[in-house]
Amino acid sequence: MKVLIVGSGGREHAIATSVAKSSKVEKIYCAPGNAGIAALAECVEIQAMDFERLVAFAKEAQIDLCIVGMDDPLVGGLVDEMEAAGIRTFGPRKNAAILEGSKAFSKDLMKKYNIPTAQYENFTDPKKAIEYLEMEAKFPIVLKADGLALGKGVLICQDLEEAKDGVRTIMEDKKFGTAGNTMVIEEFMTGREVSVLSFVDGKTIKPMTSAQDHKRAGDGDTGLNTGGMGTFSPSPFYTKEVDEFCEKYIYQATVDAMASEGRPFKGIIFFGLMLTEEGPKVLEYNARFGDPEAQVVLPRMKNDLIDVIEACIDGNLDQVDLQFEDNAAVCVVLASDGYPVSYEKGYPIKGLDRFDSEEGYYCFHAGTKFDEKGQIMTNGGRVLGVTATGKDLKEARANAYKATEWVEFDNKYMRHDIGKAIDEAL
Question: Domain ATP-grasp: where (predicted)?
Fold first, then answer.
């Protein structure tokens, strides 16, 4: 098979790494890719939102399977365009990707089908949003831009004045662009956060192993929200009882709800969960692999990824026995200092060769590129995702942090406490 992966981050590098293991795959292309992905795939200089050129390339290169990794092209309808051109494509169509594309839609869906989530209200008028905050809100409270905002469109406000500023930031100043045309005001939930990625074929859902992200930029969960500073898998708090509840009241219920709405979902549903005292509730949905969740989940998967993807497309996922290694994985993101606000890039990266000879260690590239001499350089806020496995979370965490020392570049920044709270809890 010839496979085209659409995207340029650590998630796409993790996907490419798994795809490259399949005996069914002869050639991998990635558009636009990055310097790390280039070791596995032929990178094509086409941006993820350039649908016309992507479709033309897929036809010309006789692509057998296209995997869309990123949220923007999914929400924009790339799967529809590819399928219309006769290209087998993995990911939800536009009318199903709205599950991530509009938080207001997803909240209304959960309300309609009694899927456990936080109480909320949707607003398109900033004045009415402020009135609601003044009259009815309990603090702290959560403000969410409706649309896509690179994982950063969520504000947790401690008091009324902070919440009013948040409304102005999202809806009037348009900090997150048109994503803030509609805003969700949501009850603040407390508990353990867990992420569960799942394969879906329109009617059957197969959850993967659990994971947990670290969104805040600084140690101790301080600083601004980012796209994710590190992850671990599995979560020890995602018990068999939690899984059984979610299977019954959240996972299958979501797939059935989308089908009932005439929006059958094929692809990946990412469930962001909060394990509250009242039971698990949905924080958010994503319509693709998480980043950096994919970087700890996919290395633990035993199945051939191509087999599972084809089962999703063909509607026979019920015949797949999804299996994961009985181990753990931790990913530590190496970022450019100053991320997610302002940062410098263009620094040479050293020490990457070490990962080629060490089993159980991975370095997934996110923001990297080649310079004119072929040297790998930093090219983004999140630069690399250093992942390591171990027999348990403690060992995996120690291995991951050991491996971060192999890599050197100016301006290197990372959190030093990915999974630390779990170490202490255990």
Answer: 107-314
